[in-house]
Amino acid sequence: MPGVGRWKRGLRSLQRSLRPRFLYHGQVNLTVASDHGGFPLKARIIEELQRLGHQVTDLGTNSAVPVDYPDYACNVAREILAGRATRAVLICGSGAGACVAANKFRGIRAATCHDSFSARQCVEDDDCNVLCLGARVIGPELAADLARIYVNAKFSGAERHRRRIGKIAAFEAEFGK
Predict the structure, then answer these.
(1) Residue 108: CA atoms inside 13 Å, Cβ hemisphere, count?
(2) In 60-109, where do the E strands start and end?
(3) Which of 6, 105, 135, 148 is a good FRET partner for 85, with 20 to 30 A between their CA atoms?
(4) Domains in the chain: boundaries
(5) 25-175 maps to which CATH number?
(6) What order of strands is seen across the sheet that includes strand 29-34?
(7) Catalytic residues
(8) Tens of pLDDT, residues 2-44
């Protein structure tokens, strides 16, 4: 049949393009922190990341005694900006407050994710380095799944995504975070 070879080559090309090429294969140096609202979930996240073979530093909190999430967002940001961690997981009750606080640091790109698409896409498209989770929004197994997806995702490096991240960096420089 004429054209079958071309069709098969096209199919193989399509199959190659659909492979998960953005996975990060290797150990990631991570930091994990939470406020009191996220404390019950933090142990499950650390357990999952260590099970996957990653180096994990626990920045607290270490109890359900009320603390302020901005302090833990600051600790996470400092670890990443100092190069002691590549990525982080930051947990509070909703995921929103910790995300807002983390995004105040120049060079930090944090995203609150409560679904698998966002957990992968925030890294592939936006090169996020902090995953924020809401312990009062999602359960421990979904949270562990999201952490696994997040840590395995890799920035695509596509020109349009680099351009957009460059614009964000320009905002940070111009408006001073």
Answers:
(1) 31
(2) 87-92
(3) 135
(4) 25-175
(5) 3.40.1400.10
(6) 55-58, 29-34, 87-92, 130-134, 110-112
(7) 92
(8) 554 444 444 444 334 333 333 445 688 999 999 999 999 999 9
